[in-house]
């Protein structure tokens, strides 16, 4: 039986007439387009002509005005004294001009202070109001300044930690009377350590420390030494300046003091607050009592590129010298690399120059020194020759540790060391320190340089100087600069020392025999300048008559026979009688006072008759 057809299947289209099926027509995209209803041109035109809803068009200017008004409204809500600040700002713009009359400025200042009365502690924290207050404090009367001081006195500590108010506090300190200054320093009592840990507050403590007298400075320092001294500030007197004396007189436990100072100083160093002299002083005092381990840790922590920020003060430079002396080679390398591009500034600084001198005298890595320090000194060589502090690094290489170029205090600083890091047993150091540092029969803490740990390298000092001065090429450039600037240096109060040391060839004849030819050239240049004839009525004195140059030339004659012969042949032969009086007489007499027989033989025929006739007098 045949199966029934499946009705569920899709019904086939009926065939077209004729029995043949019509060909299947393919659909195209154009068919779809044609099926869409077309809109007439008129309909399209009507749609364009339909009016849009009216939206008010704002210009850029109007939008800016609206934004400004909105910002003003928000500031009024957020700032309590916003309107007052705007009024003060307008007054400040007038009072700070330079060409304003004194009476008009006083009137504006008085108006501003009246508006701020009773609100100064609140508005001092504002960027604008703080500047207005600073100007007012600078130009107001003493009575008005006293009123401001009374108003902010209860809020000193709060204001001292504010970024903007701190400037008002320092300005008040600058203009404060002695009584007000004492009141302010007493207000810091109990807060010194806390404020020193604050980036902004530390500025106020440092400012007060700089302005205070010796007793006030001691009061601020004592809070860093011991909790007992922080609570009972009347325990110590101004005479007890050193921490060692304080511990001895008050019978404090040294271990307790060390622990307290460590807890105070460690956070300060970790935060990088290293610029202040009060911190430098506290660190120096700490190192005088610290045991070997504690002192070594501090030296290691400070031996970094940040040390360059400390060496601008007397105590800071002492810390720098400690780090150079007692630091390892690796730590010294960090310090030297930290000075890159700052050597010129360090060399010109009174205290920084001593640290640079210490580096040149101790560090053995002469290649690193030549690369970082010597090359930078060469670039500013002419500027350094006549600079009071800049010349010291050059003089140290030419004539080390000379009392002629360094004061006793400076030589003592260069020779100082950390007591616990010298090559003595800890028991001996502790006994020396706790016994009052100077009792009869006890050894003093100050020891010779040869007994210091890491105090110098293994290299011979003369070899180190030759590598830094001669082999690096510095000496040759130094002689060339002296030849070029000879007259200026001879007349200079500071330059005369440099040209004298160079013309002498340095201590231990370090420039000879390598640069003998250059030295002869320098001698010839000086002699040629001295050979210029004496000009009557000229404002500029001759080299033989000038105060500095005449004494420098006399000293060269006494100490350098070769220079004396060159000078006589080029400048004085047949002219000694002209220069036998006045300042120049000292130059002529030096030709006979020198110990060189060769010079005596050369000049005796011309100079001795001047002595016999009483025209020239010799020093006894």
UniProtKB/TrEMBL annotation:
<keyword id="KW-0810">Translation regulation</keyword>
<feature type="repeat" description="Pumilio">
    <location>
        <begin position="151"/>
        <end position="186"/>
    </location>
</feature>
<dbReference type="InterPro" id="IPR001313">
    <property type="entry name" value="Pumilio_RNA-bd_rpt"/>
</dbReference>
<feature type="repeat" description="Pumilio">
    <location>
        <begin position="187"/>
        <end position="223"/>
    </location>
</feature>
<keyword id="KW-0694">RNA-binding</keyword>
<feature type="compositionally biased region" description="Polar residues">
    <location>
        <begin position="421"/>
        <end position="435"/>
    </location>
</feature>
<feature type="compositionally biased region" description="Basic and acidic residues">
    <location>
        <begin position="44"/>
        <end position="64"/>
    </location>
</feature>
<feature type="region of interest" description="Disordered">
    <location>
        <begin position="1"/>
        <end position="64"/>
    </location>
</feature>
<dbReference type="InterPro" id="IPR033133">
    <property type="entry name" value="PUM-HD"/>
</dbReference>
<keyword id="KW-0677">Repeat</keyword>
<dbReference type="Pfam" id="PF22493">
    <property type="entry name" value="PUF_NOP9"/>
</dbReference>
<dbReference type="InterPro" id="IPR012959">
    <property type="entry name" value="CPL_dom"/>
</dbReference>
<dbReference type="InterPro" id="IPR016024">
    <property type="entry name" value="ARM-type_fold"/>
</dbReference>
<dbReference type="InterPro" id="IPR011989">
    <property type="entry name" value="ARM-like"/>
</dbReference>
<dbReference type="Pfam" id="PF08144">
    <property type="entry name" value="CPL"/>
</dbReference>
<protein>
    <recommendedName>
        <fullName>PUM-HD domain-containing protein</fullName>
    </recommendedName>
</protein>
<feature type="domain" description="PUM-HD">
    <location>
        <begin position="87"/>
        <end position="452"/>
    </location>
</feature>
<dbReference type="InterPro" id="IPR040059">
    <property type="entry name" value="PUM3"/>
</dbReference>
<dbReference type="GO" id="GO:0006417">
    <property type="term" value="P:regulation of translation"/>
</dbReference>
<feature type="region of interest" description="Disordered">
    <location>
        <begin position="421"/>
        <end position="459"/>
    </location>
</feature>
<dbReference type="GO" id="GO:0003723">
    <property type="term" value="F:RNA binding"/>
</dbReference>
């Amino acid at each position: 039986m045949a199966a029934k057809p499946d009705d569920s299947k899709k019904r086939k289209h009926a065939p077209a007439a004729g029995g043949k099926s019509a060909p299947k027509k393919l659909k195209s995209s154009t068919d779809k387009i044609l099926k869409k209803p077309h809109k007439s041109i008129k309909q399209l035109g009507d749609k364009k002509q339909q009016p849009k809803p009216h939206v008010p068009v704002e210009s850029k200017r109007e939008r800016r005005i609206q934004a400004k008004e909105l910002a003003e409204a928000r500031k009024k809500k957020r700032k309590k004294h916003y309107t007052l600040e705007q009024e003060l700002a307008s007054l400040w713009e007038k009072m700070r001009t330079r060409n304003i009359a004194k009476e008009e400025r006083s009137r504006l200042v008085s108006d501003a202070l009246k508006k701020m009365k009773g609100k100064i502690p609140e508005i001092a924290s504002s960027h604008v109001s703080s500047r207005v207050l600073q100007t007012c404090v600078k130009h107001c009367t003493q009575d008005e300044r006293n009123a401001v001081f009374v108003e902010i006195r209860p809020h000193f500590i709060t204001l001292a930690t504010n970024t903007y108010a701190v400037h008002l506090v320092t300005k008040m300190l600058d203009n404060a009377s002695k009584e007000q200054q004492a009141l302010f320093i007493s207000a810091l009592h109990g807060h010194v350590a806390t404020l020193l840990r604050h980036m902004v507050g530390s500025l106020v403590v440092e400012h007060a420390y700089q302005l205070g007298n010796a007793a006030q400075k001691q009061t601020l320092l004592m809070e860093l030494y011991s909790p007992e001294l922080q609570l009972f500030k009347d325990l110590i007197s101004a005479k007890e300046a050193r921490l060692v004396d304080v511990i001895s007189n008050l019978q404090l436990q040294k271990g307790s003091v060390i622990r307290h100072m460590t807890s105070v100083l460690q956070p300060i160093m970790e935060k990088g607050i290293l610029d202040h002299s009060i911190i430098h002083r506290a660190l120096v005092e700490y190192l005088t009592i610290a045991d070997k381990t504690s002192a070594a840790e501090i030296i290691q922590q400070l031996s970094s590129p940040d040390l360059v920020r400390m060496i601008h003060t007397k105590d800071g430079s002492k810390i720098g010298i400690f780090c150079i002396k007692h630091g390892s080679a690796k730590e010294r390398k960090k310090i030297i690399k930290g000075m890159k591009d700052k050597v010129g500034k360090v060399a010109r600084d009174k205290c920084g120059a001593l640290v640079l001198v210490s580096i040149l005298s101790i560090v053995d890595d002469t290649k690193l020194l030549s690369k970082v320090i010597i090359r930078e000194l060469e670039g500013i060589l002419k500027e350094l020759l006549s600079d009071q502090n800049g010349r010291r690094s050059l003089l140290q290489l030419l004539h080390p540790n000379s009392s002629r170029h360094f004061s006793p205090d400076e030589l003592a600083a260069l020779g100082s060391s950390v007591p616990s890091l010298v090559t003595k047993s800890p028991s001996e150091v502790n006994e020396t320190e706790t016994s009052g540092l100077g009792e009869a029969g006890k050894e003093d803490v100050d020891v010779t340089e040869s007994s210091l740990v890491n105090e110098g390298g293994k290299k011979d000092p003369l070899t180190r100087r030759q590598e830094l001065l001669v082999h690096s090429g510095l000496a040759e450039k130094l002689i060339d600069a002296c030849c070029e600037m000879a007259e200026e240096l001879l007349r200079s109060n500071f330059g005369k020392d440099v040209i004298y040391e160079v013309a002498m060839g340095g201590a231990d004849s370090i420039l000879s025999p390598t640069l003998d030819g250059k030295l002869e050239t320098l001698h010839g240049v000086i002699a040629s300048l001295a050979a210029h004839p004496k000009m009557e009525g000229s404002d500029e004195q001759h080299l033989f008559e000038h105060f500095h140059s005449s004494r420098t030339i006399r000293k060269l004659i006494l100490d350098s026979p070769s220079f004396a012969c060159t000078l006589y042949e080029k400048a004085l032969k047949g002219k000694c009688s002209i220069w036998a009086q006045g300042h120049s007489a000292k130059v002529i007499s030096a030709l006979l006072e020198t110990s060189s027989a060769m010079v005596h033989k050369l000049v005796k025929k011309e100079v001795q008759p001047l002595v016999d006739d009483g025209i020239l007098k010799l020093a006894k």
